[in-house]
Amino acid sequence: MEGKLLEMFEVGPCEDDYQLGFLIGQRFCNQIRSRLAGDLILQNQLLPFARTPHAQPLLKALSETNQKKFPRYWAELLGTADGSGVPVLDIILVNFRKEILPFISKTTMISNADTTDDCSDVLIVSDSMAVAAHNEDANVALVGHTYLIKGKLSNGLSFIAYTYAGELPSCAFGLNSQGLAFTLNSVPPVEDEIVPAGIGRNFVSRDLLEATSTADALARIRSSEVSVGHSYNLIDIQKRMILNVETASRSQVSVHEVGTTPFFHANMYLHLQVQQVHDENSISRQKRAAVLPQGSKTDFLSLLGDTEDTKCPIYMTGPTLYTLCTTVIDLDERTLKIIEGNPKYGKVSHVFSMSSNELNLKLVNHAEGTHL
């Protein structure tokens, strides 16, 4: 299965955040409409649930809590809906998918597999290299329904964010002109760890795009009273530092600084002490990664491209989960590269400079077939 060529839209500075969202929605209206129409989780689970009386208090509280905490990003979300000409409810539901699904009765869920997102990261900071490599895995419905947003804000900050159609930039990975980048991994806390109507993870990651330092990024993560858990890989080019930050509700946060030992993270908590769902897929990937070579950037790409375990491969090609792309952030080269297709073949489609000497990020190469 092949998706459409990953497009990038440069937008801003805008007069307000609603206009930013509106222009994004207008530019990608076809992808957004197509994604919503083909998203079985939205059509068969979220929308039917949203029409029930039980859902109304949750949706109202989620909306009010996140609008109050992040009024600018809420305006951006509304602008995306209006710009793309789709119902605001649909955009709200896909952005709060992870915060809503735990409250849908298990008897109405089609399949647990349909609700899973999986990503894999391998990280290292040693004398010879400092690299974060990330597989962006999602439901197969997202194939061909992602794009890059290059946003410029009125304060001069720029960011680039890999974005799911209709969602806030970025629930996947991004970077900004402060020399900061991040990649994200889902983690599955048990139901008792989930707090209804907290801050949505899409809003936290959108906020991280505007962080001015690692300390600022950590403060933004810590200050958000989230509903469910998440794992953030914070990458600081200027400090040559990578932090893995695992979070859960009730202000639970654990920070691990990545060092000379390669650090592989799938979709399980590794250092935050939280009760979590037993995830066979993540456990299988974690075990497989432990026996693969991790001595070079090439080894990392081979690891992320591994398909040896046909049931739970690290590199996914369906039928439910699909590796949309791989990103490699090299702290010494100060680049972020996007690879489309199996990463072990090294086919780079985009390279972005993260040089601290450049206020604005620049697409320095967009030649399909470029190799690492």
What features would you describe in this structure?
The protein has 372 residues and is an alpha+beta fold. It folds into 2 domains: 8-108, Penicillin Amidohydrolase, domain 1 (Orthogonal Bundle); 120-363, Penicillin V Acylase, Chain A (4-Layer Sandwich), CATH 3.60.60.10. It contains 11 helices and 16 strands. An 8-stranded mixed sheet has the order 1-4-5-6-7-8-9-10, covered by helices on one side. Strands 2, 3, 11, 12, 13, 14, 15 and 16 form an 8-stranded antiparallel sheet that branches. α1 (17-27) packs parallel to α5 (71-84), α4 crosses α5 and α5 packs across α6.
Basic shape? globular
- Sheet-strand content, in percent, reads 25-35%
According to DSSP, the number of beta strands is 16
What is the CATH superfamily of the largest domain? Penicillin V Acylase, Chain A
CATH architecture of the largest domain: 4-Layer Sandwich
Radius of gyration over C-alpha positions, nearest whole angstrom: 19 Å
Roughly how much helix do the residues carry, as a percent range? Answer: 25-40%
The third-level CATH topology of the largest domain is Penicillin V Acylase, Chain A
Number of helices: 11
Number of separate structural domains: 2
Q: What is the averaged pLDDT score?
A: 91
Strand order of the largest sheet: 1-4-5-6-7-8-9-10
Give the low-confidence spans. 111-115, 357-362, 364-369
Regarding quaternary structure, what we see is single chain
InterPro entries: C45_proenzyme-like, Peptidase_C45, Peptidase_C45_hydrolase
GO molecular function: acyltransferase activity
Keywords: Acyltransferase, Transferase
Domain Peptidase C45 hydrolase: 130-344
